[in-house]
């Protein structure tokens, strides 16, 4: 029995050992410390990914967690996205990040473990602990930015409302338990015509909305993106959001498969639509690039939420496709922005003016990621949005795909606004050379390749399944 549990949990155990090894390494000073950190991170995360492929499918720890082929793919995406994010941190230009590389890496890896457990959670106690493990390191990271006044404000806001959202999650679990007499998701009777099950779902969705920055629980996201070190944004913008929405995908599986409670499905759909609509409007008026990108994640989360309420045998494949392009487009985009010399404060769009003339590789890479996020053809984002719009039309009619189409049209406006600045010949903040490391070039190239290959042939993901 113990060996079975260890086999199931081996990827997470490896990451926990790695995180504490990095923490222990932070106390010792020696000549090749940074190289040792990078080696440990690379070996540990690759080993964890390898054992994810080898772990058997099924339930473990008394059915508290579950491994399936789908959870394995999502965990691999989380691990690979985290590896690229950690590579950026380990190659930072900022002295603070170099000095405290072990501590930053420790926090991100602990958060990654929490995200992986959230994806596999099939019971409320395990879910609550996993969500806290995912969230607490993020509270600390948001307070470690270069501007103390902004960082403290962002961390305080994130911690307070994050704690409140956990209270909502616990209250939701209590209400579900009062109906089913069990803390396991599989025992929830979604067909009940009872206001308590609707109230429990609303409290759960409030928690999800805060963690994923869905409207109207989005108020923390712009402050956090501005306050946190930009090296952390590839992780902050992807891993927590994908983990939480993937959990919701499995949580609502019994509800959606048979359309057992249309009231709850309507609530989820309504939350998706207002997030898409108001999130898109919030982005339009932004001139600060980091705030613009922070708010642009709201419509994406809304579209992913639509994907989880579509009763289709292929909806899971489409959601995983969306997760994939979203992770690599965001990671690649933030790595590109980190390579620019003017990213510390007041990062307005005019600071990108003339970037193409200064560094065509960066300019074209950023354009590639932005076009993918907008949903342009021949990029991964097109198939992600198109497929979800198509299956939502087949299930619920024209309203949900119309919301997605509206989001795509508005997103072209604000993403093309950034691209226009990049190719603008007026060069404000002119810099002779934009020099960045080989590691960053490799990360950007990998992300561009995956973004384009998914646009040309999205079926390539089926190799993993």
What's the short version?
With 465 residues, this protein is mainly α. It has helices at residues 2-25, 33-54, 69-90, 95-99, 101-120, 124-142, 148-180, 195-212, 221-227, 233-236, 239-251, 253-257, 262-284, 289-308, 315-338, 355-358, 360-374, 380-396, 399-422, 438-456; strands at 58-60, 65-67.
Structure, explained:
There is one protein chain. The chain has 465 residues and is an all-alpha fold. The chain has one domain (2-463). Helix content is 73%, strand content 1%. The chain is built from 20 helices and two strands. It has helices at 2-25, 33-54, 69-90, 95-99, 101-120, 124-142, 148-180, 195-212, 221-227, 233-236, 239-251, 253-257, 262-284, 289-308, 315-338, 355-358, 360-374, 380-396, 399-422, 438-456; strands spanning 58-60, 65-67. Strands 1-2 form a two-stranded antiparallel sheet. Strand 1 (58-60) and strand 2 (65-67) form a beta hairpin. Helix 3 packs antiparallel against helix 11 and helix 6 (124-142) packs antiparallel against helix 7 (148-180). The longest helix is centred in the middle third of the chain and has 33 residues, at 148-180. It is globular, with a radius of gyration of 21 Å. The model has no long low-confidence stretch (mean pLDDT 82).
